[in-house]
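Write out this protein's structure.
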Amino acid sequence: MLRKFGTGLALVAAAAMALSGCSSTDNQKADDAKSETSQSAQSDQGKNYGQVTIFAAKSLTNAFTELGKEFEKQNKGTKVTFSFDGSQNLVDQIHQGSPADALFTADQKNMDKADKNGDVEANKSYATNTLVMVVPKGNPAGVKEFSTNALKDKKLVICAVGVPCGNATKEVADMAGVKFTPVSEEQNVGDTLAKVETGEADAGIVYRTDAMASDKVEAMDMPHADMVVNDYRVALTKSAKNKDGGKAFVDYILSDAGQKILKKYGFTAPTNK
């Protein structure tokens, strides 16, 4: 009897241990599930990069405004602040000490200047763009084409030489053999477009993306414009206060999602260099 009783106790103890083991395993599984859920939620919210300051060419205003909102949405708590201006002005501002985490120019020349100044890290291409001529809706001045005769006595506004769109305008005009005397030379493409939209100018030369974004102008292709492609460049600044945030935003612009939004606004694919 004693042996049977002892055997019974052993069986009860074994059963208790088995139940305890099952309970421990179940608890571990529950903890693992909670951990996975927490990690998934954090992944869905991305990372809080804090304040990210971006200096970007004026022609990027519409596209980058949307890109900034999407980046903030994917990284809860992050705030992207933009400064849009002519690339040459942005380069000068950074050299004079203005804070920026990343610089997006509308050409290679101005990025090279920033590099020569010692203000940026290595740069890369993130988009390309070409020029078109625009006239006010309805073309009240009857501008027919981009040629010396067609522009004679017309009020033409362009970007100044030194500004990316101004450098490209000069190159296209030289290739096409077109001579003109502009009534105004602007410091960024936005101001150039605005003078055509308001009717202050009969015609203007802007990027294709700017023409696409406006419902107040009509665009005309220009000879040789497809041969003068502005290579838009990006680099982190050496004085960046938020390099992680700047790099994350640059990576987003270069991602498939970022490139898709740029394409929607008329920008073409970056170069391979």
